[in-house]
Design a protein that fits this description.
By secondary structure, the chain is mostly helical. The protein has helices at about 20-25, 30-50, 65-75, 85-90, 110-120, 130-150, 155-165, 170-175, 180-210, 230-245, 250-275, 280-285, 285-305, 305-310, 320, 325-330, 335-350, 350-355, 410-425, 435-445, 465-480, 490-520, 525-535; strands at about 375-385, 400-405, 525. The chain has one domain. The chain contains 23 helices and three strands. Strands 1-2-3 form a three-stranded antiparallel β-sheet. Keywords: Cell membrane, Glycosyltransferase, Membrane, Transferase, Transmembrane, Transmembrane helix.
């Protein structure tokens, strides 16, 4: 028998948590602080992105498509074709230069509707067609902060995620250009955030049910069927907007629908449902299908309402020209025309025409996480010494570029974090890491089936929020659990060292972003300064 002396502590007997306690969310109670942190980081993001937004004052890269489509959507209800030379005329202030016929738009309308809102409010100019990207890029920062805070149960780790998102070069550049992908990224992250909130909400409802009875657990019964789940509805609305921006959202939606169903079954099992929890595949799955599949479908259809109400949209007359088609007889001419239009768009994306195209910035999906090659959005070469502030001793002159290149250190650390996330999810059964892993893989892996067609690095904008989530959770692991004055010295020392290590990593990412700032903003660089930032020949 071991005697208990002044220097010997008795063993701590931990009372097992009840099912009710384990179902409770355990969220930090600093809600006001969390919102202030999120809003503060969003303010920083907005200021850095809106500065000098109108420069360059022209349509750059794929802005030659979407801002013009957006303008005609708001004026005609459908994308109208533009003549050659329209870009120069638009910069001169002339917008009434479109052709009579429609354009074959190969992406759904939602993102273009949002770009067009900026044009309606601020004019058909470079600021007008970029400002909504700034706003939604800022909202993307906030959604990531709130998601990571909920996963980590820590406002500090949520703030770390926000800082990392602010300091990613790809997120930054995509927030300052009139393309569709930044809208898709926000809607996806907002949808995932709503699903994670729903997970906690549902578990809280199960705990409330047990307390009301009152019983310690379900004792093998299935428990209550909860049809009204408001956060699941929010997720459906957000994913509907994302699908109505770009189709590849469907892969992410499908993956998270399966994950959330697994969360429901796990919650019922934790509540004591036992084998009956498996019935959640049907009893929870059918209501989930309505909110997470039917609702997005309705939102997608509504995004085409202006096209449906028009008479001149691309293929809008298909039903009129094919009155005997089965779809026309069953659904009517407008919906039959829309279905034919969708089939035409699918054939475009998967057909020979797009597969035979080439582009100097085309990349393979396997290379995106490693950032083997970025993409150039704009370039002004051959600026002579003494011009535009170019130093007079710049023997090779100067240039200005906008490179859609992620912050290298963040992306490479992200690769490590994602591997660890897989191990922590599968090995430690830590559900939190399922979110970045499922999110990243559902975005990345589907692209491999299309690797015969030109693909571009900027598509990876959907990867970085999940990458940052993995990095932030990894840093939370590095920092370790909270300590108090009563904690053992070893625990306090570990926390201190972990905090220093995490702080150094975040600081290095910030400095790395600052170093690459000129190539994200069309800044003036001598050729030597530019080459110093092209760490690999493939970046040029």
């Amino acid at each position: 028998m071991v005697a208990v002396t002044a220097t010997t502590r008795p063993p701590v007997r931990r009372t097992p948590l009840s099912a009710i306690d384990r179902l409770r969310a355990g969220m930090p109670q600093d809600n006001r602080t969390a919102w202030l942190v999120a809003l503060g980081l969003m303010l920083v993001a907005f200021i850095t992105r809106v500065a000098n937004l109108a420069y360059p004052n022209r349509l750059i890269f794929d802005e030659t498509y979407y801002p013009k489509d957006a303008w005609s959507l708001w004026h005609f209800g459908y994308e109208r074709s533009w003549p050659d030379g329209a870009n120069d005329l638009i910069i001169q202030g002339q917008t009434n230069v479109w052709n009579d016929g429609p354009a074959n738009a190969v992406h759904p309308p939602m993102g273009k509707i949002l770009i067009g809102l900026g044009e309606v409010l601020f004019g058909m100019n470079s600021f007008g067609w970029r400002i909504m990207a700034v706003i939604f890029g800022t909202l993307l920062i906030g959604a990531t902060v709130l998601l990571v805070r909920r996963l980590a149960r820590s406002t500090m780790i949520g703030a770390v995620a926000g800082i990392l998102m602010i300091c990613d070069g790809l997120v930054f550049t995509m927030s300052r250009i009139g393309l569709l992908d930044i809208f898709q990224a926000f809607f996806i992250m907002a949808g995932v955030l709503a699903m994670v909130v729903d997970r906690d909400w549902f578990r809280g409802k199960l705990a409330d049910h047990l307390e009301t009875l009152p019983v310690p657990d379900l004792k093998g019964s299935f428990g209550p069927v909860i049809y009204w789940r408001p956060w699941r509805l929010v997720a459906g609305l957000m994913f509907g907007c994302a699908v109505a921006t770009k189709w590849n959202t469907l892969y992410v939606l499908a993956a998270f629908c399966l994950l959330t169903l697994a969360w429901d079954i796990s919650a019922r099992h934790l509540a004591g449902g036992g084998k009956s929890a498996i019935w959640g595949l049907l009893r929870d799955g059918i209501p989930a299908f309505v909110l997470q599949v039917v609702v997005p479908g309705i939102i997608y259809l509504l995004s085409y309402l202006p096209w449906l109400l028009s008479t001149g949209g691309y293929m809008r007359d298909w039903g009129e020209n094919n009155p005997d088609a089965l779809s026309t007889r069953l659904l009517g001419k407008p919906l039959a025309s829309l279905i034919a239009y969708q089939i035409n768009t699918y054939n475009f994306h998967t057909g020979d025409y797009i597969a035979e195209q080439t582009h100097p910035y085309a990349t393979d999906p396997w290379s995106w996480p490693l950032m083997v090659r970025g993409i150039g959005f704009d370039a002004q070469n051959g600026i002579q010494a003494g011009q535009q502030g170019c130093p007079t001793d710049a023997a090779e002159g100067c240039l200005r570029v906008i490179n859609a290149l992620g912050t290298p250190l963040l992306w490479w650390i992200g690769c490590v974090a994602l591997v660890l996330a897989i191990l922590w999810w599968i090995g430690d059964r830590d559900w939190r890491f399922s979110v970045p892993v499922v999110g990243f893989m559902s975005v990345w892996l589907p692209w491999f089936q299309y690797d015969e067609r030109p693909l571009y690095f900027f598509y990876a904008i959907l990867l970085i929020p999940f990458t940052v989530t993995a990095v932030a959770l990894m840093l939370g692991k590095l920092i370790g659990p909270a300590v108090t004055e009563e904690s053992p010295p070893a625990a306090r020392r570990r926390r201190l060292l972990g905090s220093w290590a995490a702080g150094i990593i975040v600081a290095l990412v910030v400095l790395n972003f600052a170093y690459f700032w000129p190539i994200y903003t069309d800044g003036l660089l001598t050729r030597e300064q530019w080459l110093n930032r092209m760490w690999f020949h493939s970046w040029i």
